[in-house]
Design goal:
By secondary structure, the protein is α/β, with parallel strands linked by helices. The chain has eleven helices and twelve strands. Strand 6, helix 11 and strand 7 form a beta-alpha-beta unit.
């Protein structure tokens, strides 16, 4: 929604979102500050309009004239958009629109006559707001994933280039009268994060597609959102695994620790991290975590916590320690603030319905997609632990 169309409730919601985004270490301060200024201008405009209507009403009462209430009612309708999005009626109309291949929006137009920009509706181009029920399902998919919920999203257009320090010389003490110290040698690199389309599709029968309805969209959103978010989490793991052991001009370093799993493995991995890695997690399969916990049980109470109090995040993108081959990475230890996840078009899951390519088999292909770029941007913020 454009700022010029926002009402007070929209401004308050967006302001709260910006407040959270500003807490991020890599927040785009200039862009967010500019947006806050625009929101404040819109808020002032709304208050001025309210004040103007108040003056007009007082003047009308003073002169014994009737007060026009239609604008107030129209305004109230626009303020009720969130309530409409929560209704079953809207959810059903939205499902019918999607199932029609984004062609039949008659019911949506009827429900949202005063709120939808009908002139901009095109095939596969969603301009109607997603029902709250479905929006919550997508949000739940993000929140339920242990890895992605810890990565602050960015919403910047195009490719991103994030700079980092490859190497530098230390500062020196320059005593009075001594020769000037050597000039600092600073080598900088940059990571380019290119957005790509992350997709998941499935086939349903023509009967399921035609019957459709709200329950059908429920299932589609649940399944495809879960699969897409899970894939993005695996891309985070791959970005860390594929980083070099020593920083290059285009990739920050991820040190490697190769050894058999012992009660001290995680502690040794921590020793290879930079001081900037503070909010530590250990990413591994659930089976590997069990193997680590078993070390304490087998060794008795004389062994401290082999996890060293670090939060464990589970993934199927890494092999179980027991099944891993020699030199395979089975655990990652580090700080997920070193990851940038950029969504140029937002995190909403977009859908495409194809009822043509497999029509002879009575199958409809449903594709969910999101445009995203994942990048590892801070040297020595993670350690790869490999099996000896």
């Amino acid at each position: 929604m454009e700022i010029k169309e926002m009402q007070m409730s929209d401004i308050e919601t967006r302001s709260a979102e910006i407040e959270e985004l500003l807490k991020s270490e890599d927040a785009d301060i200039d862009s967010l500050t500019a947006e806050v200024e625009e929101l404040e201008k819109r808020k002032a405009q709304i208050l001025a309009e309210v004040e103007q209507r108040k003056k007009e009403a007082e003047e009308a009462l003073k002169n014994g004239k009737e007060i026009e209430v239609t604008p107030t009612e129209e305004r109230k309708n626009k303020m009720d958009i969130m309530e409409l999005r929560k209704s079953n009626e809207y959810a059903k109309a939205y499902a019918d629109w999607v199932l029609s291949g984004y062609k039949n929006d008659k019911e949506l137009r009827k429900i949202l006559t005063a709120n939808a920009d009908a002139n901009n509706v095109g095939e596969n181009d969603t301009v109607y707001p997603v029902p709250v029920m479905l929006e919550n399902k997508v949000q739940t998919a993000w929140e339920d994933d242990e890895i992605m919920q810890r990565i602050a999203p960015r919403f910047l257009k195009g490719n991103l280039k994030i700079g980092f320090e490859v190497s530098s010389t230390e500062a020196v003490v320059h005593a009075e009268g001594d020769e000037a110290p050597a000039e600092e040698r600073l080598v900088l690199g940059s990571v380019e994060i290119k957005p790509e389309s992350v997709k998941k599709w499935l086939y349903v029968t023509t009967e399921q597609y035609e019957i459709g309805g709200e329950e059908f969209m429920d299932y589609i959103y649940d399944e495809l959102a879960y699969r897409i978010v899970k894939k993005l989490a695996s891309l985070v793991v791959n970005a860390i695994k594929n980083a070099p052991a020593t920083s290059t001009a285009s990739a920050p370093a991820v040190p490697q620790l190769t050894k058999a799993l012992t009660a001290s493995t995680i502690v040794e991995a921590e020793g290879l991290l930079s001081a900037e890695a503070t909010d530590l997690v250990a990413i591994m399969s659930r089976s590997t975590e069990s193997a680590i916990k078993a070390l304490k049980v087998a060794s008795g109470e004389n062994v401290g916590d082999p996890l060293d109090g670090i939060t464990v995040l589970h993934t199927d993108a890494l092999p179980n320690y027991a099944d891993a081959t020699a030199n395979a990475t089975y655990m990652l230890v580090g700080d997920l603030k070193s990851i940038i996840a950029n969504f140029p078009n937002g995190r909403d899951i977009k859908f495409v319905f194809d009822d043509k390519s497999k029509a002879e088999e009575d199958l409809v292909k449903i594709v969910g997609r999101v445009l995203a770029g994942i990048g590892y941007v801070k040297p020595n913020a993670f350690v790869q632990v490999k099996k000896a």
